[in-house]
Specification:
It contains 6 helices and 2 strands; from the N terminus they run H-H-E-H-H-E-H-H. By secondary structure, it is mainly α. A two-stranded parallel sheet has the order 1-2. The longest helix is centred in the first third of the chain and has 31 residues, at about 10-40.
């Protein structure tokens, strides 16, 4: 018999950690789609550097989507990444449609990355002392996202 977090920590803890992970999965999934949207539509003098950096950020975020979903499954909570649910739970992450100037993409991605970092930091505080494995995962995600945030933000100076 496999022990889930519910069996180890109780139903309330499993639910709390599951909610934190699911909300993070929504944010990362939406962020990945926005990164690709911006990547496909960026234009301007800094096109190449912004375009390539967005690919780097996307590759990292895509890996983390899978890690967060697998952590959900590991604690006995079925992950959900369906488009309608992601859209419903991440309205604040949308970007304009159509062609976007490179400086606009830098500003938009700085804002969106900042939002996701802030959200994960807040969620990390909730589970820090409850589930160290999930907290460690969040620390790792934050370390890399904050590096990408610094790098994309620095392009807009």
């Amino acid at each position: 018999m496999t022990k889930t977090l519910e069996a180890i920590f109780g139903m309330e803890t499993q639910s709390m950690v599951g909610n934190v992970l699911q909300d993070t999965l929504y944010d990362l999934t939406a962020l990945a789609r926005l990164i690709k949207q911006a990547h496909w539509n960026v234009v301007g003098p800094s096109f190449r550097s912004v375009h390539l950096h967005l690919d780097e950020i996307y590759a990292f975020v895509d890996q983390q989507i899978d890690s967060v979903a697998e952590r959900l499954a590991a604690i006995g909570v079925p992950p959900s990444g369906q488009s309608a649910e992601v859209a419903e739970n991440t309205k604040h992450l949308q970007i304009p449609l159509g062609t976007l100037r490179d400086v606009q993409v830098v500003d938009l991605m700085t804002e969106r990355l900042s939002t996701v970092v802030r959200n994960i930091r807040t969620r990390c505080e909730v589970i820090e002392d409850i589930d160290v494995v999930t907290a460690d995962m969040f620390h790792s995600i934050l370390q890399k996202l904050e590096m990408h945030l610094w790098m994309i933000r620095s392009q807009g100076c």
